[in-house]
Amino acid sequence: MGRFLFAGLGGPFTYGGLGGGAVVTRVNPGETALDPGVGALGGLAIPVTPHFRVRAEVRYLVTHDVEAKARRGITTDVSGSRGDSNPGRALFGPHQDTQFVPLLIGLDFVF
């Protein structure tokens, strides 16, 4: 993680970071699988009072295909795109291409 201050301590700042770890990618009864995952995040925080700040953050996670066992009534598959536009597929191969990109907006209380 890193942070860039615009106006010193107590002012607005941007932040970002990279990380990796294990991700649960199988959700079948009695079966669990951990696969590697890589993530990145970046955000902007703006103080509105000495104890509150508004924050916007975007995250990116790429991991192994997340699939449920094929059986009656279950057809879950959130594999990534088969095209070349998927950066996870280009970097990690055809089975490391499930990606998530959430945008978080919040209000933080600063102690």
Uncertain regions spanning at least 5 consecutive residues: none
Overall 3D form: elongated
Domain count, please report it: 1
Largest sheet, strands/sense/barrel = 6 strands, antiparallel
Distance between the termini: 20 Å
Order of helices and strands: EEEEHEE
Folded structure, characterized:
The chain has one domain. About 5% of the residues lie in helices and about 50% in strands. It is built from one helix and six strands; from the N terminus they run E-E-E-E-H-E-E. Strands 1, 2, 3, 4, 5 and 6 form a six-stranded antiparallel beta sheet that branches. The radius of gyration is 18 Å and the shape is elongated. The two termini are about 20 Å apart.
Top keywords for this entry?
49% strand, six-stranded antiparallel beta sheet, elongated, mainly beta
Précis, in short:
With 111 residues, the protein is mostly beta strands. 5% of the residues lie in helices and 49% in strands.
Write the layout of secondary structure elements.
Blueprint: E1 2-5, E2 13-24, E3 34-49, E4 52-63, H1 87-92, E5 98-100, E6 103-109
Antiparallel strand pairs: 1-2, 2-3, 3-4, 4-5, 4-6
